[in-house]
Specification:
The protein has 5 helices and no strands. The chain is mainly α. The chain has a domain of 58 residues. α3 packs antiparallel against α5.
C-alpha cells in the first residue's frame, strides 16, 4: 500500500513537472528542484541555532560565517540560473 502511494505521488510529480516545462522556460523550472538542498541547509542551520543539543554541533563564529557564505553563494547561483 505504501509503495502504491509513493508511486502515485511520484507520477503526479512528473506530470506536474512536465506541465510546468511546457508552460515556461526549462531553466526556470529546473532551478526549482535545486532549492531543496538550500532549504535543507537553512532548516539545519535553524535547528542548530534553536536546538543546539539536537545536532551536536558547536556554533562558533567561524562556522556561522562559512554557512552564511554558503547561503549567499547558493542564492547567487539560483539568481544566475533564473536570469
Amino acid at each position: 500500500m505504501l509503495c502504491f502511494i509513493n508511486s502515485s505521488i511520484a507520477c503526479v510529480g512528473y506530470v506536474l513537472y512536465f506541465n510546468a516545462v511546457s508552460l515556461t522556460y526549462v531553466s526556470l523550472v529546473s532551478a526549482i528542484p535545486s532549492t531543496q538542498p538550500f532549504l535543507v541547509f537553512v532548516i539545519a542551520i535553524m535547528l542548530g541555532i534553536f536546538y543546539p543539543g539536537l545536532l551536536k554541533e558547536s556554533i562558533e563564529r567561524k562556522g556561522v560565517i562559512i554557512k552564511g557564505i554558503a547561503v549567499v553563494t547558493i542564492l547567487i547561483g539560483a539568481y544566475l540560473i533564473v536570469s
